[in-house]
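Contributing new complexes? Match this layout with LMY7XDAE.
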Amino acid sequence: MATVWHQWLRKSIQSSSTLRAVHTLKVDPSQPMLKSPPLISLDLPDVWTSNVMDFDPPSIGECSNERRARVIDGKLMAEKIRAGIAGEVIRMKESIGKVPGLAVILVGHRRDSQTYVRNKRKACEEAGIKFAMAILPDSCTKDEVCEALSSFNGNPSVHGILVQLPLPDHLDEEKILNLVSLEKDVDGFHPLNMGNLAMRGREPLFIPCTPKGCIELLVRSGVDIMSKKAVRHHATVSTVHALTSNPEQITREADIVVTAAGVPNLVRGTWLKPGAVVIDVGTCPVEDPSSEHGYRLMGDVCYEEAVMVASAITPVPGGVGPMTIAMLLVNTLNSAKRAFNFH
Ligand SMILES: Nc1nc2c(c(=O)[nH]1)N[C@@H](CN(C=O)c1ccc(C(=O)N[C@@H](CCC(=O)O)C(=O)O)cc1)CN2
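Output block (do not edit by hand):
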């Protein structure tokens, strides 16, 4: 399953208009899928990790047209997690006089990237995490990005570094991400972290924020899909991509559907098994002059149709996105704790 998250994440951070990935989990009916307490651990105190179940578990397989799906409120979950992080930062400051630090490299002037980085900065500031940023023009060279990276790599008050993606086409994303210090790779995109995530029995230092947020959303909603446990419990993971010939049919068999295609309204109500849990990672910016930033975000799932078929669903906005940022703060805090040997 880890491999699937890897592939899915790489797909989800690119941008094109083709169907990229719809991941489906089919669960062995002889094994209970909903468990309490949930199993995932984020190395955080119980009060704001997935040991908390925010909702009664959805009744997978039981959904009628009279009942709309439960909305999985990622914004609310993320707020609770961020409040917990703020508490931990205070505890760290009071105990050892240090706070975590996050550094972001932003290249170019994409409006969506600017919004995400602004939101990351705000979330850090609210949680008491120090925030540093290098802003480089679209035309910058690989060496300039590397210079910024190496300065953050060598700065002991920086515990997390991320390069906001996508980068302009002329910059080699792979080469640049390889240079992020493994111990500060809070995005989890370094090949060693990715490789360890994909391999059985290995532990990456960081799990990428979006998949980590998706798992957290599911677990807090009472859906047990923890990767190894899910494997042990005979969950079957299928991947649907742009070249899959029968995406609707495969998707319709899934108990859990995680989509990261970047194609608005791709997944229709008829694609879903009644009672499925739907996690919509798609965030496609669509021109909208009436909105504050000139665009609005649309998910992959046709929400109004899906909400009548699914048992639980994440909205866009307000689902996976805020959890991505909450998980970034979790990774940054955990990185600082590791650096300071603070528990
Ligand atoms: N270095 C990275 N680049 C990118 C990542 C990533 O995880 N690391 N993921 C995406 C963008 N992303 C984070 O950077 C991201 C996307 C969306 C949101 C979010 O909170 N969305 C809100 C709406 C926000 C708004 O438009 O005001 C929502 O869905 O409710 C956060 C982070 C690609 N690049």
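Reviewers usually confirm one structural detail per submission. For this one: The longest strand covers residues 101-107.
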